[in-house]
C-alpha cells in the first residue's frame, strides 16, 4: 500500500521541493500553503503523516502559528505522526511540541536522506499501529463478550493468544469430557482449570487439587483412593482419598506426566469405570468425578519412550488446551506485572521495556517473584529497571524489541536532557544511550 503525506508550508518552493522528493521515492504527497487549507484537506482525505511549517505569516519566527496548527491537527487525529519543519528562531517551540507528542523535527534547510529515513520509519510505524489498533479493537470486543458471559476467576490477560484459549476453555467447561491442559511450568495451568470449574455444572461442588507428580510411589494408591486403618504400618486410622473427596465435583491432577507407571495403571481403571478400592479394603466404591489434568511434559514423546501409557493419555485427553508460555503471549506481561504490583507503586518506562524484553523462562510465576522483589527494593513509588534484578539476554526475542527515536526523545525530555538519567529510566548504559541518539540523529 502506497503511503500518503501532506505538507503544510506557506512557501510554495518548499511544498514543490518536498513533493518532488517524495514522488522520486514512490510516496504520494499533497501540499497545502496555509493552516486552513491543510486542516480542510485532513478533514476530507486520509494521510499517513503530516510535515508542517512552524510559521506562516511574513517575518514571524515565534512558532506560535505552528503550535496552533499542531494542536488543531491533534484535535482531528490524535495519533497521526507530525514532523515539524523549524528555523533556528522557533527551535525551542519545536522541542516543546516534541514533548507533547510530535514525531520529529527537522531544521531548515533539511538533509534529504535524514528526512526520508524519518518519514519511512514513522509511516511504517503508523501503518502497523493502525493495523494493531484494529486488531486490538476486535480483541476488546471479544474480551468484553467473554467477560460478560463467563466467570474468568480473576484471571488477568490481554494477549490474543490467551483470549483464544479462554474462548475454547469456557466453551467446553459445561461438558463432562476430561480435559488435558498442557504448557510450561509456571504458565498458569491451574488458573485455567479454575476458569473451567467456575463455568461448569460443578462450580458449587468439591474442587480437589493434587500434584500427581509429587506423590511418593508407595503412597499414590492411598492418596488417590484412601486407606483403611491397619492396612499397612503407620496407617493408624482410615481416611478417604482424593477421588472420594472430589465425588460429584472436579479433580485436578497437576503434573500428570510425572506419575509413575504403577500409578498410571490404577488411575486408568477409575477413569474408565469410576470404581476403586481403598488400600486394605475389599469394598468397591464408585464415584462420579470430572477430571482435569495438566502437564508440562510432551506426553506423546513419553509414550514412545514407554514412560506413559497410551490408553491413559487418550482417556485424559478428550480435549486438550495448550497454554502458551508468557513469552508467547507478550501482551500479558505488563497487565500481569501491574496486577502483582497493586496499589502504591508503578513501573517506569524503562522497567516496562525491560520486562517486555526478558525471555521469562519461569513464566508467570517468575514474573510474580520479580515484581515482589522489585516492590521491596524500589526506593520510592517508581520501580526502575535496576529494581527488577533480571538479566536481559541478547536473544532473538529481545532483539525485536528496540527503542524508537520517539522513546529516546521522550526519555530525554522527561529528564530535561540529562542523558545519564534518561538512560537509567530506559535501563540503558550512558554509552548505549549515546549510540541510539547517534543512530536516530538526535543531537548530543
Automatic annotation (TrEMBL):
<keyword id="KW-0238">DNA-binding</keyword>
<feature type="coiled-coil region">
    <location>
        <begin position="116"/>
        <end position="143"/>
    </location>
</feature>
<keyword id="KW-0175">Coiled coil</keyword>
<dbReference type="InterPro" id="IPR011006">
    <property type="entry name" value="CheY-like_superfamily"/>
</dbReference>
<protein>
    <recommendedName>
        <fullName>Sigma-54-dependent Fis family transcriptional regulator</fullName>
    </recommendedName>
</protein>
<dbReference type="Pfam" id="PF02954">
    <property type="entry name" value="HTH_8"/>
</dbReference>
<dbReference type="Pfam" id="PF00072">
    <property type="entry name" value="Response_reg"/>
</dbReference>
<dbReference type="GO" id="GO:0006355">
    <property type="term" value="P:regulation of DNA-templated transcription"/>
</dbReference>
<dbReference type="GO" id="GO:0000160">
    <property type="term" value="P:phosphorelay signal transduction system"/>
</dbReference>
<dbReference type="InterPro" id="IPR058031">
    <property type="entry name" value="AAA_lid_NorR"/>
</dbReference>
<keyword id="KW-0804">Transcription</keyword>
<dbReference type="GO" id="GO:0043565">
    <property type="term" value="F:sequence-specific DNA binding"/>
</dbReference>
<keyword id="KW-0597">Phosphoprotein</keyword>
<feature type="modified residue" description="4-aspartylphosphate">
    <location>
        <position position="53"/>
    </location>
</feature>
<dbReference type="GO" id="GO:0005524">
    <property type="term" value="F:ATP binding"/>
</dbReference>
<feature type="domain" description="Response regulatory">
    <location>
        <begin position="4"/>
        <end position="123"/>
    </location>
</feature>
<dbReference type="InterPro" id="IPR001789">
    <property type="entry name" value="Sig_transdc_resp-reg_receiver"/>
</dbReference>
<dbReference type="Pfam" id="PF25601">
    <property type="entry name" value="AAA_lid_14"/>
</dbReference>
<keyword id="KW-0805">Transcription regulation</keyword>
<dbReference type="InterPro" id="IPR027417">
    <property type="entry name" value="P-loop_NTPase"/>
</dbReference>
<dbReference type="InterPro" id="IPR009057">
    <property type="entry name" value="Homeodomain-like_sf"/>
</dbReference>
<keyword id="KW-0547">Nucleotide-binding</keyword>
<dbReference type="InterPro" id="IPR025943">
    <property type="entry name" value="Sigma_54_int_dom_ATP-bd_2"/>
</dbReference>
<dbReference type="InterPro" id="IPR002197">
    <property type="entry name" value="HTH_Fis"/>
</dbReference>
<dbReference type="InterPro" id="IPR003593">
    <property type="entry name" value="AAA+_ATPase"/>
</dbReference>
<feature type="domain" description="Sigma-54 factor interaction">
    <location>
        <begin position="155"/>
        <end position="376"/>
    </location>
</feature>
<dbReference type="Pfam" id="PF00158">
    <property type="entry name" value="Sigma54_activat"/>
</dbReference>
<keyword id="KW-0067">ATP-binding</keyword>
<dbReference type="InterPro" id="IPR025944">
    <property type="entry name" value="Sigma_54_int_dom_CS"/>
</dbReference>
<dbReference type="InterPro" id="IPR002078">
    <property type="entry name" value="Sigma_54_int"/>
</dbReference>
Amino acid at each position: 500500500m502506497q503511503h500518503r503525506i501532506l505538507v503544510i508550508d506557506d512557501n510554495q518552493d518548499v511544498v514543490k521541493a518536498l513533493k518532488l522528493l517524495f514522488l522520486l521515492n514512490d510516496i504520494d504527497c499533497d501540499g497545502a500553503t496555509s493552516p486552513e487549507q491543510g486542516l480542510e484537506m485532513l478533514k476530507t482525505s486520509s494521510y499517513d503523516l503530516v510535515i508542517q511549517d512552524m510559521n506562516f505569516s511574513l517575518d514571524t519566527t515565534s512558532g506560535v502559528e505552528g503550535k496552533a496548527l499542531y494542536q488543531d491537527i491533534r484535535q482531528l487525529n490524535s495519533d497521526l505522526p507530525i514532523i515539524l519543519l523549524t528555523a533556528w528562531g522557533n527551535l525551542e517551540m519545536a522541542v516543546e511540541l516534541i514533548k507533547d507528542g510530535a514525531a520529529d523535527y527537522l531544521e531548515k534547510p533539511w538533509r534529504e536522506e535524514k528526512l526520508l529515513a524519518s518519514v519511512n520509519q514513522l509511516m511504517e510505524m503508523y501503518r502497523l499501529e493502525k493495523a494493531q489498533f484494529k486488531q486490538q479493537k476486535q480483541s476488546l470486543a471479544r474480551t468484553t463478550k467473554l467477560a460478560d458471559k463467563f466467570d474468568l476467576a480473576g484471571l488477568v490477560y490481554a494477549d490474543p493468544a490467551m483470549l483464544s484459549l479462554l474462548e475454547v476453555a469456557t466453551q467446553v467447561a459445561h461438558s463432562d469430557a476430561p480435559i488435558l491442559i498442557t504448557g510450561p511450568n509456571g504458565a498458569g495451568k491451574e488458573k485455567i482449570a479454575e476458569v473451567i470449574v467456575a463455568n461448569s455444572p460443578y462450580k458449587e461442588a468439591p474442587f480437589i487439587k493434587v500434584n500427581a507428580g509429587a506423590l511418593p510411589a508407595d503412597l499414590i494408591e492411598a492418596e488417590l483412593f484412601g486407606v483403611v486403618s491397619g492396612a499397612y504400618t503407620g496407617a493408624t486410622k482410615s481416611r478417604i482419598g482424593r477421588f472420594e473427596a472430589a465425588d460429584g465435583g472436579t479433580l485436578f491432577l497437576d503434573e500428570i506426566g510425572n506419575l509413575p507407571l504403577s500409578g498410571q495403571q490404577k488411575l486408568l481403571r477409575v477413569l474408565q469405570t469410576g470404581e476403586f478400592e481403598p488400600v486394605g479394603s475389599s469394598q468397591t466404591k464408585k464415584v462420579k468425578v470430572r477430571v482435569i489434568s495438566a502437564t508440562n511434559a510432551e506426553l506423546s514423546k513419553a509414550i514412545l519412550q514407554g514412560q506413559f501409557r497410551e490408553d491413559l493419555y487418550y482417556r485424559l485427553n478428550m480435549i486438550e488446551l495448550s497454554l502458551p508460555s508468557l513469552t508467547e503471549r507478550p501482551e500479558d506481561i505488563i497487565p500481569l506485572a501491574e496486577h502483582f504490583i497493586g496499589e502504591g507503586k508503578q513501573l517506569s518506562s524503562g522497567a516496562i521495556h525491560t520486562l517486555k524484553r526478558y525471555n521469562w523462562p519461569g513464566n508467570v510465576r517468575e514474573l510474580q517473584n520479580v515484581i515482589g522483589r522489585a516492590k521491596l527494593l524500589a526506593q520510592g513509588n517508581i520501580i526502575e529497571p535496576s529494581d527488577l534484578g533480571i538479566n536481559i539476554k541478547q536473544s532473538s526475542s529481545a532483539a525485536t524489541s528496540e527503542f524508537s527515536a520517539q522513546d529516546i526523545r521522550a526519555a530525554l525530555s522527561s529528564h530535561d536532557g540529562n542523558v545519564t538519567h534518561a538512560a537509567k529510566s530506559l535501563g540503558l548504559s550512558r554509552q548505549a544511550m549515546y549510540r541510539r541518539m547517534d543512530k536516530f540523529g538526535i543531537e548530543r
